[in-house]
User: Fold these one by one.
Assistant:
Number 1:
Amino acid sequence: MAPINDRPEARGAGSERGSGPVARTRGAVRRYPGVLALDHVDFEVRPGEVRALLGKNGAGKSTLIRLLSGVEKADEGTVEIAGTVLTGGGSREASQLGVATVYQELSLIPQLSVAENYHLGALPTGRGGLVRTAHMKDAADAALAELGVRVDPGMPVGALPVAEQQMVEIARALRGSPKLLILDEPTSSLAAAAVDVVLQAVTRIAASGVAIIYVSHRLNEIRQIADSASVMRDGRLVETVGTKGASSDDIVSLMLGDAASATEAPARHTSAPATDRPVVLSVRDLAVPPKVRAATFDLHEGEILGIAGVLGAGRSELLRSIAGLQPPASGTLTVFGEELRRWSVRDMIRRGVGFTPEERKTDGIVPLLGVDENIVLADRRSVRRGPLLSGRRQRAAAAKLVSALSVRTPDVGVPIGALSGGNQQKAVIARWLHRGSRVLLLDEPTRGVDVQAKAQIYDLVRELADDGVSIVFVSNELEELPLVCSRVVVLRDGAIAAELTGADITESAIFAATLADGTGSAAASTTGESM
Amino acid sequence: MSSTAQTQTAPAEAERQVRRLSLSRGVNELGLLAAIILLYIVLGAKAGGFLTSGNQLGILRDAAQIGIAAWGMTLVIIAGDIDISIGPAVAFGSVMVAKGATSWGLGVPLAVVVTLLIGTAIGAFAGFLRARFNVPSFIATLGVYSALRGLAQFISNALPVPLPNSGFFDFLAGSIAGVPTPAVVMILLLVVFLVIALKTPYGRAVYALGGNPRAAELAGIPVKRIRISLFAVNGLLAAITGVLLAARLGSGNGGSAMGLEFDVIAAVVIGGTALAGGSGSILATALGVIFITLIGNGLVLLGVNQFLQDVVRGVIIVLAVLVNVLLGRRNRLTS
């Protein structure tokens, strides 16, 4: 099913050696309970080659990476590194054979110096077991210089810009002279300008003969550095294409497959476009460094506006800034006709804007307090009798919302930490309804909740919009935007790059718009500047 | 919506967890109550004069010295902070009121008011350092601890400052309907703080910000203002304790209330309030106050060497907290 490496565009260094592939999987299968995560994948990568690995969330990229780096074992088929079949000896075995992996989340210790982080786990020691500080610094300095980075190796890593922290991480991965370097979205946390540092380093590393597997959602990056791209979908390696030959549209349709257009459910939102309704929230040239340069969009009454973008596009930053958590560097916000330049969380709450954060556990709920107290948290005035809180009114107010939003709880007094994620999320939304908020900013409202709860949250959001509540819906799961949104704007390169409305809101159109690198995408009506 | 097995298990699981939570709380308070009863039985049998009404009233008077500050401390700890400056703040208050009423010529009523105001202001300052600049409350109050102890000794030349003859101080040192006045103050404040903690938006906001400061902030709760006020209240309570102490001793004393913060924090923690913040109960603290006071009283009556008393108290406090932690861990493991 998967034509592999039909165009082995190995680069100079690799072909000179004329050696076999650095890594190869044959018929690799990996199952998780209820899921076939990897379905007979044949994959190989040669020395000096930069191979991009593409696919939607859940396509099997991470599973393939985990097999190659030895973290997991294939249920069927084989994984070979440098000609040796992995026997299930874990990541240690793979790393001894020459695999190094840099994961998306940085694994540095911010308080320790660059040099110590570089040597972490293997500090060079001299006589008496003491650390050879000077030697350690020199080695770290040399390693980073080789990647084109100059930093003071004595500096704490936390004080460096994120791009340079990423370079320290990559340098550390190269310490054992690996044959295969796997980079899992190394640029997702970087601003566009900082990406070049990483890309140049990757090119240098490949030139020295190391094979590189590069996972990214940014097609223009992939074009710059990768020779070929393997596209995965539903656990299968669909095709490996040369990045020079294939258009963005080709790649996008490979990633989405035929299924995408078939399953695109019209079961959606209110039919009437709300754009003729009054504007309740108006964002103008909002800049939230480093990721958001100038975002401009309007939110209309009763509208569900989706904000899409690849991981690291700055969706959450934009939303948090509107909510008052992070002051913007420039730009204005108009709320119900009132223009603001500076605003706090409390300013926004007072004006009827409620925000449900992405990290529900750490930012959203007070786990030990009851569901009722969590619901009335943003407005206790209405549940008081005189100066004191009325437990009865508090329970009554909460009970009303609990049943309206079908929050599943044995009692409204139950500590909210005991509920499931979906029910916690509904309670956090209920908090703003209790406060009488007319604008809701929902950051990843369905993250970590089960399928049924997701459907209930979609229903809830639609019902609220029908009642005239205006909603901004940020989600990393593109397939849910067509289900709920009446309009979707796409954040790319720090600005709103595209806008989709009505029937144009399809998963593939949104996906294409988030990735687009200017070569055009037929499906998305790309408006360089929205409104 | 259809109720599948999945959605049905969630509330059932929640219910079980709730029962476990309330159970552990009950166990803690019942256990403390049992320990207090046990102390009464043992001390009643072994320690001569323990059950006399004179000694019982003395216990109440001693409890007030710890209890008044412990109510505020419970809220501070629920909010995830700590205030270790209680002892010096009480001593400073006692010196202030004595100096104010005598050599500074303020007169008794004004001296009392000024003492309470300054105590509040000093607490608010520590709270301001915590809330505005994120100075850890342990450090902020450690600074206050040292400064106030030094100031109290400096102002008083390390000598007791006698109080003037005053009906008001006699009243504070005396009793109301047979109950020592400080104990009456403590009980009145206990009721006030119970209501604050359980029934006011302010009190519930304290629980919320201790349980999850970020969520509280996002819900529009004025986290900074509440933090400052908590320390201000603690300063006020320490000043009240200081005035009562001065009235009882007949003088302000810069070296008094040594180690009082130890007893106050121990009472709160024995009551089951977690130092991590977010949960705790004023009523349980009240049991903790009684427990600590009984042990102190009993050790004296049993004639235990004064230095060994400290050892015994230290061991008992750590044991009590250990039991709490183990109970908590068992609950977490089974959940």
Number 2:
Amino acid sequence: MTGLYSPPPKTGSGSAQAAMTGPYSPPPQTGSGSAQAAMTAMVAAPLLDVRDLALQFHTRDGVATVLNGVSYHLDPAEVLAVLGESGSGKSVTAHAIMGILDTPPARITGGEILYQGQDLLRMPESARRRFRGREIGMIFQDALSALNPVFSVGFQIAEAVRLGEGTSRADARKRAVELMDLVRIPGARQRVGEYPHQFSGGMRQRIMIAMALAQRPKVLIADEPTTALDVTVQAQIMDLLAELRRDLGMAMILITHDLGVVADVADRIVVMYAGRIVEQADVYQLYRTPGHPYTRGLLASVPRLNGKGAPLATIPGLPPSLTKIPTGCPFHPRCPYARDVCRSTVPPRVPLGIGRYSACHFAREVADGRRG
Amino acid sequence: MFRFIVRRLIQMILVFVGTTFVVYALMFAAASDPIQALVGERPVSPQLRADLTVRYHLDDPFIVQYLRYMGNLLRGDLGTQISGRPISQLMGQAWPYTLRLSALALLVVLLVGIGAGLVSAVRRGGVFDHATLILTLVVIGIPVFVLGFNLQYLLGVKWKVLPVTVGADAGITAYLLPAVILASITLATAVRLTRTSILENLRADYVRTANAKGLSRRRVIGVHVLRNSLIPVITFIGVTIGELMAGAVVTERIFNIPGIGYQLYQGIHLQDGPTVVGIVSVLVIVYLVSSLVVDLLYAVLDPRIRYE
């Protein structure tokens, strides 16, 4: 994976353009930037738009603020990477989009999730269910536990097919085999009746993908799809996802903490920390000139070939407990740039270019590479 | 699979020989004077005593008696009661009553147990959930005969909604109360187990996947969760099938049902060794076969189980 060590090559010119020109803050006022005006006319409204999403977990230990005003959008046929440590809220945001949060303990306390202009959070469950799987599909990290152990993979894929198309059992079964072929499971016809535990990790993740594609969604959310896999298999799965996304013209939200994966596949990145988005940029800019100290720390902690023997750079300290998020900028206790203002004031989004911002008081200094 | 069954059958033979030996030895040790027990309070003439002793080999050493008994058993001869009645005939008459009772009890456990467990899990923390929690604790805490006699009095004698006793020629409705009494503890446990199992499975990752597909809640719970949740429940119920048949001693006595449990009680009361050992032997076989069936059923419910 060359992307680990150098700025990534651009994949798919069409989607890259969409990323460059995509509106960066709530889209209705896209006309405000004069340079943008001409280009935005060509860009459709985002497919998916998460606005100021706030979410809490009510636990015995108190109320944990898991999401604190998360906003991001996804354009058609675009790959958006959501990057962050565990607990940063990246998966929870995805669950909120899908409407599969465990409530309780989770409770959405504010914001909206617009899919093609319709607010998913303000529709009855019966209406919302039609978006799940059909408009937005999702694949999960651990395919072994995410697949039902007591039903054959064919049953589980066919079940999704029937939901979307209402076909007969026999036709759904045939389509399940086709989908298994599509995700390149060898001997699909023979293996359609087998159970999840009879497949290898990589094959199980392919089955998850086949299942998610069964209803031909416009958006695919991949929640750490390769984390549980061997490195060689990781690359195969990512290649498959990238290829399917391109062929089927889907948009994809790729949730990951793996910077290498991001560089290869994504058009645009949002970085999350302690339930907030700290930086948004396209891949190239983010790798070259990270605009937030946290992003900078993440990139510095990637092992490099030319740094062999030297200790790995780490971000000092630990992510905050979500029941006790620091005042001001939540990253300030770990931040080399931190000053008094960081401890008292939540940093605003500082625009760093078209479709690019960083939530840091010293965003420009960080982006320019000046030390804190 | 075939080898698994063969191995289990061989194990069953060993268990069968062991248990019959223990039961036979216990009855042998406990027997004071079966001839006196037969005639009750009246005196027994020495001539009659000598005749009976010879006819039933009562003077032979224990091990000879046991081996003779087992030899007959293998030829399908369960022996005769001291009264002279063949035990196979006794069982032929008694089993249908017990089967009717335990089949109905099993049905109650399956329908009410799994149904109530499902509802209290889905409506966790609701009125139904709390009510069943209290009720199941009460049922588990109260001895069967207390529950049996009280319900018999209330429903049979006082309110007259159900027959007081069953007897020999009763219809299936008469078995309803005895079946519920017989099932009560298994039922209460099945409710708790189903509830716990479903709640645990509701948190499983595959449920999130099923939801993400856009399946209805009914289908997620009724198909995905239920199938997984039933694995421990069916295992538990299967293991108790033997208990439902053997455990009918108290229930059959309360409701005067002339089944196997009733006959077993009579046999123990009369110190009738052959009857007790014969019935227990058959019950042991019921236990062993039902546990084998459960093990095989387990593989049907859970494809991850393979018998090598």
Number 3:
Amino acid sequence: MNNKPKVGFYSFSGCEGDLLTILHCEDELLDIFSAVDIRSFRMASSERHDDENLDIAFIEGSITTNKHVKKLKVIRERSKIVVALGTCACYGGPQSARLGYNDWEERFKKVYGSAKLTVAKPFESQPLDEFIKVDYRIPGCPIDKYQFFYALTRLAKGMPVELTKFPVCAECKWNENECLLLKGQLCLGPITAGGCNSRCPNHGLPCIGCWGPTDEANVASEINLLKEKDFSAEEIINKLRLFGGAGMVRRFGELLGIKPKEEKTLSKTQGVSKKKREKK
Amino acid sequence: MTNPFLPEEMRLVRRYDLTSDVRFFQVRPVDMDRALSLRYKPGQFMMISLAGAGEAPFSISSTPSRPGMLEFCIRKVGRVTTELFKRKENSLIGVRGPYGNGFPLEKMIGKDNLIVVGGLGAAPLRSLLLYILDNRDKFGKFYFLHGAKTPEEMLFRKEFFEIKERDDLNCHLTVDVDEKGQWPFHVGLVTDLFSKVEELDPENTYATVCGPPAMYKFVIAEFLKLGIPKHQVLMTLERRMHCGIGKCGHCAIGPIYTCLDGPVFSYWDVLHMKDLI
Amino acid sequence: MKALKLKRDDLYTYLESLKSYGELWGPVAKGEKYVYARLTNVRDVALGALRTIIPPKKFFVPPRFTMFRYTDDHYAESFDDVKPRVLFGLHPCDIHGLLILDELFLERFPDPYYKRRRDATAIVGLSCIPDDKCMARSTNTHAVEGGFDLAFNELGNNYLVWIGSSLGDDLVRLNLDLFSEDIEPEDLKTYLAWRRKRDSRYKLSFDLTGMPDIMELSWDSPMWNELAEKCLACGSCSMVCPTCNCYNVRDVSDLTLNSGVRERHWDSCMNKEYALVAGGHNFREARAERLKLWYTHKLKAFITEYGKPSCVGCGRCIDTCPVDINVAEVIRGLTGQKVTL
């Protein structure tokens, strides 16, 4: 058979909701398995080929221990293309909501007391690109299956992936929802990457930013607007950080009251990394 | 009603590399009558369509004076071009067009012509160059100045070397750097070649430039120094396009659409329409 | 143009009759707003609706639709099965909006996707009394002389029904008994009084003459940067604008990989990638540049090209932008009036 790209699915810290989203695609599952050669997918098959090289690695979950880092680096070395799947992998997820506050150890002690973990050395949850180069990001909590299919087919055909670049508001308008922001709700639609078909506003719920910030998120203006609507700074910042994680902290740390730590991965955006863009 | 968005099946007849990342493509409508009757003007462009990858606009590099075959000179930079580079000879691709205004040949005929090309600017201007050469008696004096970064990066080297030998035009080639010392002609910027331009009647000259953005300012300054009127200084511009026919909006600049009203503009257009370059 | 009269009380009966021509659509309430929806029950129609969340352009250029299905490199056209339909309740500004889309989509290189949907659709207009966000009088789009098949105008206990096309005439004949040809001198009085009432209700009034010159002179105005600082670049303004027509095209492969669809979806020049070309150059990187393009296109470019602005004064941008950047504010800014951002 095999011109088909070899693909692996991996999971770190998270609820595995992204891989579940894929497994739940009953109607398309066979097509997925015939489009690519899946070499590793723990939730779907016990068969694993962890020593071979891959064309594409889809990785969900955030990185929280030194063991993760080791395993992640091995996957990177074996894979031509690494795709961060879901918001945890892309930005750290809710478990990274307090990134940058430097209070992780304190929180850890609160939960685990003085217990010593022996299996692995834990640290504050971080997105994949803190440790390795990530080629593409498919955000979402969980991901949208159609966006995953889109990325998968593009990659399987050896083409670059360009995901939706407009914010949630665009699709929200297409769906003719009443604007929740204008109704005084704390909605992050204008600064959050679209592609979810405005899932929450369709049900009358404000956007909580679970796809992370758009390339051009005007977070400063969003914060001002929400303040005008009488939300407290704390409420706003908590909401921005809940799913924004590293995506918020790295780019908009100062607005959240955090000094930017390093510029390292700042320019990487959803989709193609800047480095790759420049190379073209 | 015909669907103007429907790509026409064309055969990729021939392809070869011009440089490490620029490839030459010969394309022909599958139907031979259609191939021979396809009309276009130098400076026009076509939308090349590859199922799964999408569509993008490309200048036509061939001349309508040699009917039957469309030629493109394409750099691998994006989604569509990456896919196009994978296509083998004899495969089918989708093409639609021609679109855009093209060069105002009716006005350029009988006039002196000066063409200045930098790098990939050869893609659209080769069409005009060959057209003028094929209709040489209809045009006045003719200068063709072409600059590339290095000898390796000069597109259509062989063809231009041959053209350089002709005595019915003044063709001058240059490269910015020649590390291996193999380049037989001038080494330096394309603007250096203006020293070879003489005996043009500026009032009756059309000067055309296409190349990397940084080049325009300097070349246009040279044109103006020669006394060529601003509305006779022509250039072809690039913009994002999804339709080629004034619908998708992406190439809008002020009141015009690059795809309908361009891509060929005069320097006067540029001056009075903000945002053009 | 011929005018008839219809009793207000007979409106629902007549709307029911229109269903024999095709699907009947009209404005219905959605929360505190309105949307165009199928009128299964004619009494659902919101006769007092001023502006729907998105304009009727959605009927002719849906937000997302398939242009082609491809298999390998063969393309098969894909047209939605558009059944005959009647759009009831379009206000004059929205009819003007459609006329502008007609210029763009039906003139040079007619767009078959638009044309099919347009051809299958009868337009039935409805007069309205403006609110404080309407500015159609300034854009001269508060009344219609064409662009509809039928146009209903409030007239006391009646509607004055203008017949704008032969299809309109057919539509009247679907229930001819409801209509009367007797226009009395009193009716003219009522009509004129209604017009005065309408015109007096416009709170927003702008002089748009010379707008292209003013925009040209404002090219380097700091206003654009000030607006850009607030702008969320969410693109909502484009989505709700009756004349914004920009779109993107993308191919979406099936999982079988050798087939798929070429789809078209609404885009906005406010999106950062709007003018990005392969190779990475962005012709409009700065948000201020994109905002300027949006407004230049409405208030300058279109006037230069067609002699009228491509703003029809519907007030949707005023109603929609979360940070209050809209055509009224921009005109105020450009003409040196106080901007209340």
